[in-house]
């Protein structure tokens, strides 16, 4: 009796091994896949139920088992069943698609992996870069008043001109626009960037710190060509970068740095260097009457601040 039981167990194991090594052909929404029964039934999921006889399986005339589902991510499903984990796509949208397929096939491990990846991407993702477009001085004043961040305002209005443009002006105008977009992405979250498209200037950069203008770069000038005047647009890239970095000094949470001061020892008369206290006083702490505020106005063609 014991020998018969052992023989029956061995036969059952051999049959299971043969079934697990059996290849099946799958047609998933027109995407053809070739895999083993062991892969499909490795975990307790909908595919195991489908191939264990608990569900009706449809086949076509060529023996392909039909699954009425999009086959875009089915290769990833099979790879997960083979290895227990996969490398997920970089694209958040494709991970969400794979998550939907994993939920459909009831593969809980892959569901957990996809959800964890989406959660990490949501935490690590940069916020959307929003650039307000001001259409009046009142709008600009309101934005400046409401924010505590440094501000870069880029004003461009090609139509605000009564002369013709020089040959390089259009290219330089485009370079200014591209630089503004690049800076707004690079310093997003630290600096508020805004555009002005109806101002009096043609191409002008303004920089604000502590809710007031501290610098301005005018990128246009009038040049004389024979008997007529022309408007020239410049692209002072280095100047713009310099002023953008300068206004980062106006960030509210910027750490204060101690200053080194020189003085003379009262006993020996020798010069000594002492570390002063942290100079963290803001302009708001200074009485308005004792504050002389000047805006650095830089005209590119003269290359001199006024």
Automatic annotation (TrEMBL):
The keyword Nucleus applies. GO terms for biological process: negative regulation of Rho protein signal transduction; proteasome-mediated ubiquitin-dependent protein catabolic process; protein homooligomerization; protein ubiquitination. Its main location: nucleus. InterPro entries: BACURD1-3 (IPR045068), BTB/POZ_dom (IPR000210), SKP1/BTB/POZ_sf (IPR011333), T1-type_BTB (IPR003131). The keyword Membrane does not apply. Pathway: Protein modification; protein ubiquitination. Gene3D superfamilies: Potassium Channel Kv1.1, Chain A. It is found in: Nucleus. Residues 22-90 form the BTB domain. Pfam families: BTB_2. One of its GO terms (cellular component) is nucleus. CDD domains: BTB_POZ_KCTD10-like_BACURD (cd18369). Keywords: Nucleus, Ubl conjugation pathway. Coiled coil: none annotated. Belongs to the BACURD family. PANTHER family: BTB/POZ DOMAIN-CONTAINING ADAPTER FOR CUL3-MEDIATED RHOA DEGRADATION PROTEIN FAMILY MEMBER, RE57120P. This is BTB domain-containing protein.
